[in-house]
């Protein structure tokens, strides 16, 4: 017990000494009628002084009022308390400002544009279903296919990605440094280890010549080859009149009407083989369609084509290219092309307008 009491008293004396030192740093010292300030506190060892952050104008005024030698002890204590209260209030006000600092900045721009189109599209589809039900007419099922060839090479980096990689490579050139006597990690760096090579220097040192990222088909504008637009995805688009359009063939995706004894996925495979031949080998990632769209039959269509149907429910499947190519001798489509999403959207915009093109823009 005696030892515990002794340790407790030592702890109390140390705490009292630290409190007195902190208080003296806030209160001026009067010596021989002259007011002097204590020297700044120092770190352990007395080598480096503490770094004192500059105060704002309001905080500096409150602190000078709290440290004024013309005030009594209670007045200085009240002023110090007021300083702490004002500091806390400013901190809370800043936290509130941070919550709303980005309210006026643009956000969710693309999401808002998509929702503005999507909500109107869903409202239109609901109206079509109600109208078909009121007229007592059924829907004809059609299956359309998005044959996708993935990108062959990596896409080009964005500007911000290039800047980040340059900064990262620069920082990585300065690793951890250890004394020469420590051999437990690795050998000391050599001067040549810190040489930063550019992409051109690395390509020049390869034992082969890399193939160009831009092909001859890109330069000539040939869209009937898979050796184009290697940095992005391309889709098989056909120009066909199989959809019953009285204005003639138009650019679309391969499609077909399901038969009674086949599934929608089998119909998707048949749609491709009928349009561009059977040489294409495709990979089918799922039995489920990717999306659905509606098409209403109008009176301008041939009577034998539209029959008693109100319109078509078009189920879109995504199939990925594996091997092979289009068999031009066996295809039934008038024309075809391996087009990027932007090229598909541009051609549909010219033929059907921006509303239909917007659907392909989001789907592809």
Automatic annotation (TrEMBL):
GO cellular component, as recorded: mitochondrial large ribosomal subunit
InterPro entries: NUDIX_hydrolase-like_dom_sf (IPR015797), NUDIX_hydrolase_dom (IPR000086), Ribosomal_mL46 (IPR040008)
One Gene Ontology molecular-function label: structural constituent of ribosome
Residues of the Nudix hydrolase domain: 216-361
Protein name: Nudix hydrolase domain-containing protein
Native source organism of the sequence: Thalassiosira oceanica
């Amino acid at each position: 017990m005696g030892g515990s009491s002794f340790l407790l008293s030592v702890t109390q004396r140390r705490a009292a000494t630290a409190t007195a030192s902190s208080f003296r740093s806030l209160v001026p010292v009067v010596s021989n009628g002259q007011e002097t300030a204590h020297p700044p506190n120092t770190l352990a060892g007395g080598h480096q002084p503490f770094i004192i952050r500059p105060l704002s104008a309001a905080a500096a005024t409150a602190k000078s009022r709290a440290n004024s030698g013309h005030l009594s002890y209670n007045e200085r204590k009240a002023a110090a308390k007021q300083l702490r209260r004002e500091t806390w209030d400013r901190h809370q006000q800043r936290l509130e400002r941070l919550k709303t600092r980005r309210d006026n900045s643009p956000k969710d721009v693309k999401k808002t544009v998509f929702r503005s189109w999507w909500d109107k599209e869903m409202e239109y589809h609901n109206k079509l279903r109600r109208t078909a039900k009121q007229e007592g007419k059924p829907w004809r099922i059609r299956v359309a296919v998005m044959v996708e060839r993935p990108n062959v090479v990596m896409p080009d980096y964005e500007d911000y990605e290039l800047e980040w990689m340059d900064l990262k490579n620069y920082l990585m050139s300065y690793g951890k440094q250890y004394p020469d006597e420590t051999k437990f990690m690795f050998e000391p760096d050599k001067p040549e280890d810190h040489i930063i090579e550019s992409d051109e220097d690395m390509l020049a040192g390869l034992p082969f010549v890399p193939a160009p990222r831009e092909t001859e088909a890109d330069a000539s504008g040939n869209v009937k080859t898979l050796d184009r637009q290697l940095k992005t995805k391309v889709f098989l688009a056909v120009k066909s009149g199989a959809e019953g359009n009285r204005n003639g063939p138009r650019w679309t995706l391969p499609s077909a009407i399901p038969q009674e004894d086949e599934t929608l996925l089998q119909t998707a495979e048949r749609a491709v083989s009928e349009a561009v031949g059977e040489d294409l080998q495709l990979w089918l990632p799922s039995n489920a369609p990717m999306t659905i769209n509606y098409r209403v039959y109008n009176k301008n269509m041939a009577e034998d084509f539209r029959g008693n149907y109100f319109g078509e429910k078009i189920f879109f499947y995504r199939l990925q290219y594996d091997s092979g190519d289009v068999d031009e001798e066996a295809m039934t489509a008038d024309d075809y092309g391996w087009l990027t999403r932007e090229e598909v959207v541009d051609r549909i915009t010219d033929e059907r307008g921006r509303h239909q093109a917007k659907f392909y823009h989001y789907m592809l």
